[in-house]
Every structure is written in C-alpha cells, then in structure tokens.
Amino acid sequence: MDSVQEVKSRLDIVDIIGEYLQLKPSGSGSFKACCPFHQEKTPSFMVNRPRQSWHCFGCNIGGDMISFIEKIEGMEFMEALELLAGKAGVTLPKFNKEQMGEKKSLQEANEYICKLLQHNLLTSPEAQIARDYIKARGIDDLTSDIWRLGYAPADWGDLQKKIQEQNITASDLIKIGIASAKENNQGIYYRFRSRLMFPIQDPFGHVIGFTGRILTDEKVAKYINTPETILYKKSHVLYGLDKAKTDIKRQDMAILVEGNMDALTSHQFDVKNVVASSGTALTREQLNLIKRFTNNIAIAFDTDAAGLEATLRGMDLARQMDLNIKVIRYNQSIAKDPDELIRKDLEHWKDSIKNSKPLMEWVYQHAFEQFNESTPEGKKQIAQFILNECRHIQHPVERDAWIFKLAKDLDIAPDALRSALSKTASKSADSVGQNSNIIKKTESTELKMEEDASNTAKQIEERWLAAALMDPQLFHELDITWNHTPHVRLYNYLKSKYNSSVHSQIPENPEIQSLIDYLAIVADKEFGELDKSAISAEFTDTENRLLRLSDKLTRETLEQQMREAERKGDTARIQELITQFQNLKT
Ligand SMILES: [Zn+2]
Predict the structure, then answer these.
(1) Is the Cβ–Cβ distance between 469 and 494 less than 8 Å?
(2) C-alpha pair distances (Å), 534 with each of 201, 418, 522, 531, 550
(3) How many angstroms separate the alpha carbon of residue 149 from the centre of ligand 1?
(4) What is the pLDDT of residues 283-314, one digit of tens each?
(5) Which uninterrupted H or E stretch holds 571?
(6) Which neighbouring-strand residues pair with 97?
(7) Is 450 exposed, middle or buried (0-12, 13-18, 19+ CB in 10 A)?
(8) How much distance in Å is there from the Cα of 37 to the middle of ligand 1?
(9) Which residues of the chain carry a pLDDT beneath 50?
(10) SS3 for 25?
(11) Cα of 284 to ligand 1 centre, how many Å?
C-alpha cells in the first residue's frame, strides 16, 4: 500500500469533513451539509461513507478527503496529505527542505521560535517581569502552558545562536515576521522585544504568528502583531479556535470576544467555546471558520465604544451567511471586559452567556438607551437605528411586529415607520445594474436553453445510471443515444459487469471510478429514503424520460446530418439517412 492509500485507509472521510461542516445523515451511509465552497441555504454538499467521497451539486465538484482538505485549507496536495498523515499517525517518507515546500519549512521555524520563547519565559532571569505579570493577571501555569505563552527578550543574542543551529536563516525570520531587514540590508532586527508573547495558532494548532505585549514602560505600542506573512493572514484568524473548536461543536455555539486575554481567561475558568477576534471587524473568512463548527454566535464586544459600527457591519455579514447572532450583555459597572468580569464574578459571566439576546432585541434596547425618546430628534434617531436593523428581518410578520412595537413605544403611527422603512429599502436597490442584467439575459437566452436541455438530459441519464448502480437487478440493456460521453463508457462497463458471470473482467479506469463515486452520492440523494418498490417505480419513470430524450436527440442528429448531406448533394448518404429515419420507433 502506498502512503496515500495508507493514510486514507486509516481515516474516515465523515470524521475529516465533519471537523469542518455540520454533517447530517441522509440516506444509507450518506451525509449532507451546506457547501463551504458556495453560498447556499439548502444543503447540496454530500458525503458518501462507503465510497469515502464527497460531492457538491451546487459547484459540481467533488473528490476524496485529500482533495477536500486541499480545497478548504487552500493547500497543495502534499500539504494536505501531510496534514491527514498526522491525524492518521502515518509517517510519510522524509523530504528535504527544498522539496518540503517553503510554507512547511516556515511553519517549522515558527514552531521552533515558539518553543524557544516558551522555554525563555520559564527559565530566563530577564523574564521575571513576565512571570510576575502572568501571576498578577491570574493566569495559572497550566493555562500558560496550553496557550504556549513565551517571552521575547530585549536582546535576542543568545537565542539567535540557537536559531542558527536549527538552520533557520535570516530570510526565514523575515518571512515569518519575527524580524525585519535593517536599512541597506545591514542584518536584521527582531520585531518583538521585552514582550510577553502569545502565539497565534491555526485551527490545527500550527503556530502562524505572534502577538506581543510590552512589559516595560517604554513609549511603544502596547500590543504588536506579526505582519501579514505567507502563514499569517490577520483576517483569516480567530485566536484560540484550535482550543475552542471541540467545545464550540459540542455546545453548538461560539462565543466571540475581542481580546486575546478574554478568551484565555474564559478557557481557564472552563467556559471553553470562546474565541477572540483580536479586535478587528469580523471578516467573511473568520465567520466561515466559525461556520465549520456551528451556526450560532454570541458576541461579547464592548458595544459602547466606536467599535459598534464595525461590529454591526460584521453582523450584517454574519446574517447574510445564515448565522444566528446573539449579543451577550454584562454589567459594565462590574467590569470593562470579559477578562476582568470572569475574575471578579464568574457566575455573572455564565449568566450573561445564558441570557444572551437575539441581535434585534439587543439593537432595540440599545437604541432606547442611546437616544432620547422624549424629543422629536431622539425619536428619529431611535427609529433610524432600529429600522436599519429591521430591513434584515426576512419574515414580514416578524418585521411588522417590531415596527408595531416601535410605533407604540415611540407613540407614533406605524404607517410612518413603514414608509420610512420602504424608503431605506428602495434606496439600496441598484436600478442601473438591473437594466444591464436584462440586456445580458436576452443575448444569452438561446445559448442558455441549449445548455439547459443538455443539462436535463445529463441529469436524467445520471439518475438512471445511479439507480442501476444501486440495484443491479434494475439494470438492463438500452438502445439509446447517450447525451454525455462518459455515461456511454459507464453503461458499457456496467453491461459487461452485470451480464457476465466473470466479475471485474474490465479494470475500472479512474474516470469510470470517479463517475461511480459521484453517482453513488446521486443515488443516495435521489433514492436514499425510498424503499425498493418506490425506487423501481422511479426507475421506470426515469427510463421513459430517458427514452423520449434519446429519440429526440437521435432525430435532431439525423436531421442535422440530412441537411449536411443535402448541402453536399450526397444522394447515397441521403438514402441511408432516410432508412434510419424510417427505423425510428415513433
Ligand atoms: Zn458547492
């Protein structure tokens, strides 16, 4: 067995993909989920356990567990294989640094630096200031260990020797953002000095960057981060996700905090479904990361600050992505952030999570707290703030209920609010864009119809073949013109397989193999929940459609050939085609 086969045989595709998507059982041995590669509300992403394959009917792509990892992690084949080999406990043959790929070797450099700084925190006399700080902040040894805290010294001289012994070059250090090149290329300087170091890890726990907190009184930025590198993309990271993912899945809820310390402290006190956005406005990539594990987010952001606007914008995005959003409120006179709150009153933190409110409720309450409802100007501000949010409510009855409540609370006519709402809505419609779309539509309609017909034919063929694959007894010979060439090959393969007593006399070529994988998923999707007689009825129906389509296709082909023959004046060919026409059944 080669390494690829060995890795695949030790893992289950359902477990692997299940780490990214919420898979729901569907049919025998199949699972479905909303596709991570395109936006959708009803699941068209299927995983088939018996065949260890996946397919999305929306994007029309699929493959095995390796191709899934490649696609979702943006990895090369070898990287994806290594990741899976790690999970499977398979050691792949060692590659040298050049072959290993830059990304992997930089990952190892980061890992080494992380270990070095961890060790430095525990042993260096200079790091006493950091050890004191950690103690003062109430971080225990276990937490410090788990989160791999470290200390970056004022002078990296001693560490540099060790780094060089590992064959990590100055250029590597620049590439991972630990160092910068000095002007005129006169060596490098280390970015993090006299700082407590918080490694930033990807969902698998690989160190991809660092946040450093200054511990001296120097007039420098309190926190600095690794700049954007090959490994570290700020907008793609949620701090602590590697440690929180299991709990997020288990509790079907991700709690989002702003600061790294908020996440770390919450974990220390056993509320572990918590990740930090590290103070940036939420991005699509971050929300996608969360969506791998849950559709429910509760945010505990400082909503009084100027960050509110950014937070709400992030929530817009979350809503578009069909995430349910709640807002966690706590008494800000007790503490200014979750970190402080957890230390002062853990129960209050837990209660706040339990009592988190849907975003709309929070917005409503917030508007009334922010603006003065007794003045006309205040009423306008409250209405604007709330209506802005109302626009996003999909269900008209729910939307109207809020409007009615708002009208009552502001003591104004509901119709005034309704017309204000429709104004905001029509303003956002882009009429120019719509016009140009109409023109485009007319031009492409003809092409589109042709394409549709061919797609329908393909789907009916798929359905027939899928049923025949599922139940060999359904298979019988058909005298038809297939629309889709690979289907001919599969049909011929099935014919020889099912009609012969000698099994597998034809080796399955990779094309047929992957078509069978795909059709097994189609079979589960189409017939998975039906009993044998229902499948048989569906099969007959499909076959009738297939025969009609094939007739139509044959007729069209003959007609085209006839026109061609007439144009050339080829009488022999014309005669031949006429005979064929006459032989058509109807
Ligand atoms: Zn898709």
Answers:
(1) yes
(2) 51, 50, 16, 5, 24
(3) 39
(4) 888 988 898 888 899 998 766 655 666 677 77
(5) helix 571-583
(6) none
(7) exposed
(8) 5
(9) 96-97, 426-444, 446
(10) strand
(11) 16
